[in-house]
Design a protein that fits this description.
With 167 residues, this protein is mainly beta. It has one helix at residues 7-11, and strands at residues 15-16, 35-38, 41-49, 55-64, 70-76, 82-91, 94-99, 103-105, 109-113, 118-123, 134-141, 144-153. It has a domain at 1-16 and 53-146: PCu(A)C copper chaperone (Immunoglobulin-like, Sandwich). Strands 1, 2, 3, 4, 5, 6, 7, 8, 9, 10, 11 and 12 form a twelve-stranded mixed beta sheet that branches. It has one helix and twelve strands.
């Protein structure tokens, strides 16, 4: 029997976003390295794990407070050859990430890119990613892109070190 832990259930990890919520962040990215915006889309706590390999996974919270669906299409960064939208799956006892087409985020929801879920995969890294450093990247949507600062956490991190507290 083939088992998939992917699309409908995994991608529906999105939950409602309430208009009054701001997670303690400013509403523009001026100086707050934990927040980026693209209109009514907020990207919070972008992070990855330290690695010396040629690839890394990028995680973050995407809050969509608009009235129309938003489409996440991928990303770009100077430190890697490519950025691909991926999802974790388990099939016949083997686990790994598979490429996804564009991902639609419903209005008024939050999509969490996280380990063993949906993520952005960097391939062809130019250099190792060192804990406590950061780098910039663009997260691309059908309507434009947002510039985020990605914090590099420990190689075994399971979440952003600032997740869950206000700034």
């Amino acid at each position: 029997m083939i088992r998939y832990l992917i699309l409908p259930a995994l991608l529906l990890i999105a939950g409602p976003v309430h208009a009054g919520e701001d997670h303690g962040h400013a509403h523009d990215s001026g100086g707050d390295t934990h927040l980026a915006t693209l209109g009514d889309i907020r990207l919070v706590h972008a992070w990855t794990r330290a690695t010396d390999r040629g690839e890394a996974l990028i995680f973050m919270e995407i809050e969509h407070m608009g009235a129309e669906a938003a489409t996440l299409t991928g990303g770009a960064t100077d430190i890697a050859d490519g950025v691909t939208l991926v999802a974790f799956q388990s099939r016949d006892g083997a686990a790994g990430y598979v490429a996804l087409p564009d991902l639609t985020i419903a209005p008024g929801t939050e999509m969490v890119l996280r380990p063993e879920g949906v993520a952005l995969l960097l391939t062809g890294l130019d250099a190792p990613l060192v804990e406590d450093k950061s780098f910039g990247m663009e997260v691309e949507f059908a309507r434009g892109h947002a510039e985020v600062i990605v914090q590099i956490e420990a190689a075994n991190a399971t979440r952003h070190s600032h997740a869950g507290h206000a700034h």
